[in-house]
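quick one before i forget lol
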Amino acid sequence: MSIEFDFQEGADGVATLTIRGDMDMNSSPEVREKLTGMFEKNQKAIIIDLSAVPYIDSSGIATLVEGLQWSHSSKNKFFLAGMTAGVKDVFEIARLLPVFDTFDTPADALAGV
């Protein structure tokens, strides 16, 4: 399955990236490229909508961890929203769920900005 993106940039400095498809070693470089562009624009907050990501592997996790690290160094907020059950399980197994700010929906994340 190929990966697709939907990018929305609000006037309030909050950007949302919706990812559709598996986040694996084939698609992670594309996700990283999108994140790089978002951080270069110096958004106040970045929301990653994972509601259409059925599968994530270690390279996908590493890409999101990298985004979290960038957010800490740039002082931008970085939120994950809409994790599917399978994706959430991988985060729990990796013991990374408490490391990220996670929300049930992108709207919930937006309210947390």
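fyi Helices lie at 28-40, 58-74, 85-93, 106-111.
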